[in-house]
Amino acid sequence: MGKSKIEEIRSLAEALRGARVVHINSTAFGGGVTEILHALIPLMRDVGLDAEWQLIEGSDEFFRVTKAMHNALHGADIEITAEMRDIYLRYNELNAQTFEGDYDFVIVHDPQPAALLHSHGRSGGKRWLWRCHIDTSTPNEAAWKFLRPYLEPYDVRIFHRREYAGDLTSSPMAVIPPSIDPLSPKNTPMSLDESKAIMARFGIDVERPLLTQVSRFDPWKDPLGVIDAYRLVKKQVPGVQLALIASMALDDPEGWIFYERVVRHAGEDFDIHVLHNFHGVGNVEVNAFQSGSDVIIQKSLREGFGLVVSEAMWKGRPVIGGNVGGIPLQIIDRQNGFLVESVEECAEMALFLLRQPELAQEMGARAREHVRENFVITRHLKDYLKLFLSMSVSAPLPLSGRSTTSKG
Amino acid sequence: MGKSKIEEIRSLAEALRGARVVHINSTAFGGGVTEILHALIPLMRDVGLDAEWQLIEGSDEFFRVTKAMHNALHGADIEITAEMRDIYLRYNELNAQTFEGDYDFVIVHDPQPAALLHSHGRSGGKRWLWRCHIDTSTPNEAAWKFLRPYLEPYDVRIFHRREYAGDLTSSPMAVIPPSIDPLSPKNTPMSLDESKAIMARFGIDVERPLLTQVSRFDPWKDPLGVIDAYRLVKKQVPGVQLALIASMALDDPEGWIFYERVVRHAGEDFDIHVLHNFHGVGNVEVNAFQSGSDVIIQKSLREGFGLVVSEAMWKGRPVIGGNVGGIPLQIIDRQNGFLVESVEECAEMALFLLRQPELAQEMGARAREHVRENFVITRHLKDYLKLFLSMSVSAPLPLSGRSTTSKG
Asked: How far apart (Å, rounded) are the C-alpha atoms in residues A182 and A205?
């Protein structure tokens, strides 16, 4: 990060010194949202904000409902029944009863706690922000209609992309893309030797070319299409291998069923490696595969944002990505990677990168720079600071009634 | 159970009334040993013994070592290093320090706590019994040599089959086969309608024939051979389906790897259903598949005992089993099931049972009777009572110094 950028953040933060900020979401571990909060909240504190993190509580029945809502907001054809709505509201009300504090900015993440403002009222927070991490551009109508009234009272709704705001664009809205944390074990520099040693432990022949996709086993990530693309490449490059890497959750039966579907499609071709956390693949191993693979693929058919693309680009790899969600914000086609729309195109670009390693290297260097400019956590912090300041200005904000210097 | 059998147990138990018994093993949940203890200990208490259950404690390193020892005792080519021996003894000594009580019979189950007597000395127990639940007929020599000195001080060593005692046959030995609990949810009667409704939930077409094997995904259970046998059957009976059902453990990476191997062999033949607990298959579902399948297979290449065969036979199903371990004690070839030695034989017998449903029914009825006579928990209890009494007689046992009536 350049000095001027640090200066810019410091000066924005100065005006917000001591502001009390709380992030509220439903889980402390697992998933992109928590990764971002684990990095962002300490940074907010570093620059002088009084930032905290609160979790809402819920039981299995609540999380079953919110998972269904999540999928429905992504566009899945799931009915949100009266019973589900009751469960959703009941747990939001329970959490509203225990919510206390006196904050300048309350940032509520994702649908799980979205009804908190409705249930609790504005007391305890001067400004209320709803932060959406999912692609709500073509939601299931009924689910959106149910959730919408709980989103409307917020002072601002924050989306990854303008397109995700749907019919909420008339209300105050902000666009803040997500970001990666270059200091996390998933993203710190790793030598090629170390990367190869780790990959070899999982049965990869590091002398032969490797294609890798890191993503949940989920139809929207199209791992079956990735296998088909690999098979086309293998006709030309018989030594090629494929690694499909995922994080599996114990409480996600659908994930296990689709994992099995992927393994069945792989069949007895043992150059296809299907790996997940139960095999011991964690953040460091993902780093190794992203750093050491010849080609990284993210052939999604639908994406919330697809930040895993930036993770791989950060390691200097050109990525072949589906032209959906936030992927085209990250991949500039034919500059720092490739946007593809089909199995055949994906295979063609993989072959190109395997056959042109020097060009691949150059594209990878541009990929890393693009991420440095646009998708690292400091940019994310800056966007929040700017948004906080804009909200103070448009409606003068009594910063907790305290002088901004009293706490410095 | 007939009245005369109940009388026999009551009269045996009368002479042991108030005897203090403790079962010691390493885990309270999962696996056949704990299933038996959950049924046996309450029964011992019912008939007047003062029976308890104690668990030894260990960390991951200890259980990694004991798992390796378990596999080595089964015959696997695994080195038991000096470090592993140290870890094994260290945890046995730690557990010996906390072991207290004053028991008439201490029953130590399996290798994990086997060194307890060595580490603790005989105080706290008048008679010490080692109960082995694994097939130690052809153990890895080095592992057996390591464990042997810790087994020798026991008053008696109990095996499922005489053949499992190896070179320990010169010392006092008892043979007690394992047993099923007819009252557990896995074994209580289930109507065919209920069974079909449950199987349908897992994608089985209940109008078409179904072969089922219930067993861990482990090379010794030969699920790949079962798939091959199913494929031979399918040539003659195109509508046939196969269910492979297992319980998976979180802490068993090898299990996950072999599960994947099985799914790869199944490939994209969706008449093969590979199911496990993470899909929601529990005891009741296993009951449904055992009760409702046309043919039950247990094509093991090696078995501790293979009690799952009795579970299926108890539901009136003739079972096709590998001719190994305790399976030939359960299956009387061509009377109440079939013993097979190859994929081809397995397929042939499955075809026979599919084509002769009435004969299958008759064999199944005989199978159930054979289990009722030999492999239910009350027979297991009776064997223990007889053993306890024989140990009291051969060396008069001061039953805790209390009169046998003082507690009645």
From this structure: 28
Do residues A160 and A305 make contact, with C-beta atoms less than 8 angstroms apart? yes
Rounded to an integer, the average pLDDT of A152-174 is: 88
- Is 50 exceeded by the pLDDT of residue B403? no
Report the gap between the CA of A221 and the closest CA in chain B (Å): 19
The answer to whether residues B362 and B336 touch, using CB atoms and an 8 Å cutoff, is no
Considering chain A, what percentage of its residues have pLDDT values greater than 90?
Answer: 77
Bridge partners, B173 (sequence order): B157
User: For A130-153, what is the HEC assignment?
Assistant: EECCCCCCCCCHHHHHHHHHHHCC
The answer to whether B346 and B323 have CB atoms below 8 angstroms apart is no
The total of other beta-carbon atoms located within 10 Å of residue A134's CB is: 21
Report the alpha-carbon distance of residue B143 to residue A151 in Å, rounded: 65
Give B93: exposed, middle or buried? Use CB within 10 Å, 0-12, 13-18, 19+: middle
Which of B224, B278, B279, B285 is the best residue to mutate to test the A interface, defined by the most A CB atoms within 10 Å of its own CB? B278
Q: What percent of chain B has pLDDT over 70?
A: 95
Give CA–CA dist B285/B291, Å, rounded: 10
Q: What is the CATH number of domain A192-374?
A: 3.40.50.2000
Of B253, B268, B279, the CB nearest to A256: B279
Judged on CB neighbours under 10 Å (0-12, 13-18, 19+), A29 is exposed
Q: At residue B184, what are phi and psi to the nearest 5 degrees?
A: -75, 155
Q: Please report the ipTM that was assigned to this predicted complex.
A: 0.76
SS3 state at B50: strand
> Per-residue pLDDT for A355 more than 70?
yes
Give the amino acid at B40.
Answer: L
List, by residue range, all CATH 3.40.50.2000 domains of chain B.
3-179+376-394, 192-374
- The burial class, CB within 10 Å (0-12 / 13-18 / 19+), for B405 is exposed
Which of A16-20, A367-371, B65-69, B74-78 has the weakest average pLDDT? B74-78
Instruction: Say which of A264, A266, A278 has its CB closest to residue B253.
Output: A278
CA gap B16, B24 in Å, rounded: 20
Q: Who's near A152: CB < 8 A, 6+ residues apart?
A: A171
Q: Which of B260, B262, B274, B277 to mutate to test the interface with A (most CBs of A within 10 A)?
A: B260
Q: Residue A320: which H helix or E strand, with range? A: strand A319-322
Instruction: Name the CATH topology of A3-179+376-394.
Output: Rossmann fold (3.40.50)
Q: What is the pLDDT of residues B73-110, one digit of tens each?
A: 988 899 999 999 999 999 999 999 999 989 999 999 99
Record the tokens describing residue A283, joined without a space. Answer: 């953040």
Closest CA in chain B for residue A279: B253
User: Hey, are the CB atoms on B279 and A257 less than 8 Å from each other?
Assistant: yes
Phi and psi dihedrals of B274, rounded to 5? -110, 110
Q: In what order do the strands lie in the sheet with A103-109?
A: A50-55, A20-25, A103-109, A125-131, A156-159, A173-175
The reported pTM is: 0.80
Q: Looking up tokens 């499922």, which residue turns up? A: B160
Contacts of B255 (CB under 8 A, 6+ apart): B216, B217, B218, B246, B248, B249
Kindly list the residues from chain A whose CB atom is less than 8 angstroms away from the CB atom of residue B279. Answer: 253, 256-257
